Amino acid sequence: DAGVTQSPTHLIKTRGQQVTLRCSPKSGHDTVSWYQQALGQGPQFIFQYYEEEERQRGNFPDRFSGHQFPNYSSELNVNALLLGDSALYLCASSLVTGEQYFGPGTRLTVT
Amino acid sequence: AQSVTQLDSHVSVSEGTPVLLRCNYSSSYSPSLFWYVQHPNKGLQLLLKYTSAATLVKGINGFEAEFKKSETSFHLTKPSAHMSDAAEYFCVVSDQRDDKIIFGKGTRLHILP
Hints:
The structure holds two protein chains of two kinds.
Chain A: E1 5-7, E2 10-13, E3 19-24, E4 31-37, E5 44-50, E6 53-57, E7 64-68, E8 74-78, E9 87-94, E10 101-102, E11 106-110
Parallel strand pairs in A: 2-11
Antiparallel strand pairs in A: 1-3, 3-8, 4-5, 4-9, 5-6, 7-8, 9-10, 9-11
Chain B: E1 3-6, E2 10-14, E3 19-21, E4 23-26, E5 31-38, E6 44-50, E7 56-58, E8 64-68, E9 73-78, E10 87-95, E11 101-103, E12 107-112
Parallel strand pairs in B: 2-12
Antiparallel strand pairs in B: 1-4, 3-9, 5-6, 5-10, 7-8, 8-9, 10-11, 10-12
């Protein structure tokens, strides 16, 4: 079992650009959640996808959007990047009410 | 509204001595509580969870935590620290009504030889 995988591992973008991060859930899981972890902070919940629909959303602007595919994998899209979007982006998968398993994250640097 | 407060940003203990990482929470409904560990350049790993069963919860690697409703606390303990325990630890609260998950700011545990 590969567990939760995320790609890419690292990414450098320029202010104003757009970025797409990808997540493949643990085998058998149907729910994917995304978190932003700024340096020295705890992860902050962005949103959760279940059955290809956004089920819950945290306090993030509409520049942050996502998608879940029929195979349960997911993408996180961020438009009009700001310097403050620099962070580790974590994906977690679970069954809809179960324990979350986290991937290693994607480190995004915005310059 | 839910919230979680980790009372110490850094804790240093000597190898072989007890570990105590403190966490207080606030939740309007019956909370689920978790402790996660994050080693450098690695993903978050679940140590243990409380979901309204036994108030003393045993986790992996010798860690345990006690849910105290009267004190709204969920402190993490380990009888004897090991060098491999050095990491960042996060206390997490989830409201069983809406499953929203709130992380604390983390406690960095340092183990002194």
